[in-house]
Design a protein that fits this description.
alpha+beta; Tc1-like transposase DDE domain-containing protein; nucleic acid binding; Tc1-like_DDE_dom; Nucleotidyltransferase, domain 5; globular; 3-stranded antiparallel sheet; RNaseH_sf
Length: 196
């Protein structure tokens, strides 16, 4: 699984960046200009529905914009368990909320094994970054950009585009990501299935 920000396509008013600090901070009444979608794919290339984190209105000065947190991660786990089976493996990057003890316990109690990317290798190894998200961005551009009639239209459109990604492209990226070099157990249990 991995997260991806999707712009709401409106100007970000009252936003500024503090000098010598590259992180954006919110000033005054700003509506966060991104939704966060959390995507999951299986080793067979199966693509379940996306889990959405809607943008939040920020009103405090210098309040940092964020998407995924522990509470949202627990909600994602509930979403994930609707299509996961006991004995499945969930591969995640090293985002702080992914390592939360309640998140891990909830998954393990349901028979899900959790494996994390190495801290220095997540972005260039992730099959979702290398294939699916790039394809989704391209599909969004060809779909008239990121302009949507309303929020429901946005969810339906993006989810349909997401699920139209060919299974073979996902599987190929699992092979190309060379995950076995970083996790022997993942190689034996998961990669062997995707290659066969």
């Amino acid at each position: 699984m991995d997260e991806k920000g999707i712009w709401n396509h409106h100007p970000a008013r009252y936003t500024y960046t503090r000098k010598s600090n590259p992180k954006p901070w919110v000033k005054g009444k700003l509506v966060n200009s991104k939704d966060t979608l959390t995507a999951t794919v299986s080793y067979k290339g199966e693509i379940p529905d996306l889990f959405w984190i809607k943008s939040v209105t920020k009103t405090k000065k210098r309040e940092k914009v964020s998407g995924m947190n522990v509470q949202k991660m627990l909600e994602y786990v509930d979403h994930f368990l609707t299509f996961a089976n006991s004995g499945d493996i969930l591969l995640m990057d090293n985002l702080r909320s992914h390592h939360n003890i309640d998140v891990k316990k909830k998954l393990e109690d349901s028979g899900i094994e959790v494996i994390y990317f190495t801290p220095n290798g997540a972005s260039h190894l992730s099959p979702l970054d290398n294939a699916a998200f790039k394809i989704l961005e391209d599909k969004l551009r060809k779909n008239g950009g990121r302009r949507f009639a309303n929020y429901f239209d946005k969810i339906v459109t993006v989810n349909n585009l997401w699920k139209s990604i060919p299974n073979g492209k996902i599987i190929n990226q699992f092979k190309k990501s060379e995950l076995p070099y970083y996790n022997e157990k993942f190689d034996k249990i998961m990669m062997s299935r995707s290659i066969n």
